[in-house]
Description:
Blueprint: H1 21-28, E1 32-36, E2 39-42, H2 44-63, E3 67-68, E4 74-76, H3 77-83, E5 96-99, E6 105-108, H4 113-123, E7 132-141, E8 156-166, H5 169-189, E9 195-198, E10 208-215, E11 221-225, E12 232-234, E13 255-258, H6 265-272, E14 280-287, E15 290-297, H7 304-311, E16 317-318, H8 321-328, E17 344-348, E18 357-360, E19 366-371, E20 381-383, E21 403-417, E22 427-429, E23 435-437, E24 439-446, H9 447-457, E25 459-460, E26 463-464, E27 475-479, H10 485-500, E28 505-508, H11 514-524, E29 528-532, H12 534-539, E30 542-546, E31 552-555, H13 557-569
Parallel strand pairs: 3-7, 15-17, 17-20, 27-28, 27-29
Antiparallel strand pairs: 1-2, 4-6, 5-6, 7-8, 8-24, 9-10, 10-21, 11-12, 11-21, 13-19, 14-15, 14-16, 18-19, 21-24, 22-23, 25-26, 29-30, 30-31
Helix pairs in contact: 1-9, 2-5, 2-9, 10-13
Amino acid sequence: MKASTLFWPTLRQAPQEAEMKSHQLLLRGGFIRKVTSGVYSFLPLGWRVLRKVEQITREEMDGIGGQEVLLPALQPKEIWERSGRWVEGGSALTKMKLKDREGREFCLGPTHEEVITLLVGAEVHSYRQMPLLLYQIQTKFRDETRPRGGLLRAKEFIMKDLYSFHASEEDLDSTFKTVYAAYARILDRCGISYRVVEAEGGAIGGSETREFMVPAEAGEDILIECPACGYAENGESARRGAGPKAEPAELMPLQEVATPGASTIERVSALLGVPPEKLVKTLLYRVGHGFVAALIRGDKALHEGKLGRYLGVADLEMADAAAIESLTKAPVGFSGPVGLDAVRLVADYDLQAMANFVVGANRDQAHLLNANLGRDFQVDGFTDLRGVQKGDPCPRCDGGILEAQNCIELGHIFKLGTKYSEPLGAFFQDEEARQVPIIMGCYGLGITRMLSAVAETHNDDRGICWPPSLAPFEVVVLQLNESSPLQTEVSSLLYQRLAQAGVEVLYDERPERPGVKFHDAELVGIPLQIIVGKVTEKEGKVEVVERVSGDKKALSPDEAFTWVVEKVRCP
């Protein structure tokens, strides 16, 4: 490709809205352009990188027996209602909904569990037809409330999703390990350093999940890990140990105080002059036919997923104002554990280290000072009910202290079991001629997100440093004086020979200053450079440069050709 014909609009400055380094570089290098918030066009350079990510992914999916399909982006409401996810599903699957001219409701697919399950359920009827691995690389649509980071959190993005179908749990376990290894190979081939951590199934579901995360300062996910034992988990689902219990302290007398208009932690703290960490919130939830009260320190937020797991329930519903008043005899904001005998009490681990704290009095406009566990109320159990932070105790080993770092999530693999096959009617006949639901696995990988993750972690003050496997071109020939017959002859011959040898080469013969050509080549991160300039005029040689290391040497054109070919074939 000649640079003079390449659609390559570079920018000297990134738009102000681009806060992350990767977003800035992908815009400045002419890889992508914004259409609207969370929606981007891929320009030729970006498309070349994207195709390389897709090709690596296809090779690894095909290598484990995956078969590529293409499923529709337009999905009818009815199939989502059958799985129970038309309304439910959580913010991660907020759908783009629309109607056709007849008033039928659809969504633009944020994921494809429903579609693929119905397809396989209609065609697979015997255990002999499994295992079956089907994957696609397709555009997804999610109505993100806060798109950010360019391609990292977008409304429209490309994803690889693989679905596996099994006759037994053992077969699912085997495939899960196989896909895990394939994902590791994909990220290795893309030059990405990553961590594999435990995670929650979220809106997709599943009994066992793993996330592939890339450490990055600007990442919006948090990786929690213990250096002592190797425990690692996504911050959204990470657990912590019980921690130390309270040191012996003098228990002060329980005292009721008036707190007019103070129905929030902030107002109570300001009115009483007590820091939020000395307050305890009592949060009431409806569970089945009864209620449970979760107790958590005033400066912390309750993690409803952890409470649900502790209670063994899938859905939690916060008690409404009428139920709270009926249970506590007080309006919302004044609930407390003292005297709340008819409700099951579950306390966060933090309360074990607290004494003489403030709680609601179960009376209108009143709180209690110097409440204490054991003396004033009892709890049914202690558990981890809040988000995990750096410095918390490890849940797996004694003495381990958790650390935290920002990451970018690239892949997520799930053991779905029969979550979708049962409601959608995907059954098969097993070896004993019984009709049983198909067992499923689900494996997602962010294709467009990969570009941002690599650009975020592979850059310097000059631009992107693409790994050779993903670079838009493998080498750029820089002719510094386009009016020099000698430079034109040497550059053209090198360009032709390299292209004939199968090397992806960009020939920059534009009538631009040398500084512009160097700047653009380094900005877009082409790994190898051949400079045809003053050294060529004086010595008949060209200079070859490695983008990342900066190593430079003068070689004859023939030697430069051999050098590039060897580098490309054995990077």
